[in-house]
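Why do we care about 3D structure at all? Because function follows from shape, and shape follows, mostly, from sequence. That is the central idea of this module. The next example makes it concrete: a single protein chain, its amino acid sequence, and then its structure expressed as tokens.
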Amino acid sequence: MDHFTKTLTDHDLRLTRQGTSILQINVGLLCNQLCRHCHLDAGPGRRENMTAETACQIVAYADRCGFDSIDITGGAPELNPNLPYLIENLSRIVPSIMLRSNLSALKSKKDTGLLELLISHRVTVMASFPSLNESQTDAQRGDGIYETSIEMLQELNRRGYGREETGLELNLVVNPSGAFLPLSQEKSEKRFRDVLYNKWGIQFNQLYCFANVPLGRFRQWLITSGNYNAYMEKLAGAFNPCAVTGVMCRTLVSVSWDGYLYDCDFNQAKGIPLGGRKRRHVSEMPGKPPEGLSIAVGDHCYTCTAGAGFT
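And the structure:
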């Protein structure tokens, strides 16, 4: 029994599915950045990228299931040539689509019509913007990324994103730059809102503070820097039993670049299939995972149940 399962048992808790309303699609591990906190070890050298055939199978699955929303992630999803196909076809059958972007990849595709496609289908942009400190951001993500991110946020604002009257939603995602837990989301949002607007005129809708998941490249950095055990102790010490009922895996199913199903993107990174059972391909699934199905867990799940949780 892993430590997290024992903690759930000690609190008389089980992690099972509610009604699955969100389909999360990881289009691949190809990325233009080598972020230190990446739980997938994504980067420019990765070749795992979703094919047109798998994209078609995922659209068919979404059509069978009737999800409420789609969450597209990567890697950098902008670098997958099948992203426009997914957006165009999923928007016909699902009310809401969200794209997770590192901003620099989106900027690199500015002249391809991708931004116009996002606007026309009213896709929510979840922009990763880890810090207001330029040196911290560049240390975590690469030289020049901070300046590029600011420029892309300004461009999104010019196109209507982040402005309440347009309905084009721009949200920021903030991750700590080291082996510590995130600050208060409410205080962080106020600070980011004030600084970004006062210095660059940038507006956004909401900000989300998430802890870094000890998997992939971030796990390796924790180990090599001697921070792994202390970080895991911080996560476990911040366990909040009230956060268990609201974790995203209870209402989400995640599909990988090659079409296999997982309880979440973190279990996908860990290689733990849906429910901890035999791997199932999206083309073989008749519908949504049933309510009450057990969710596969591991010690990385402390990340989503620490403090206010990861929803």
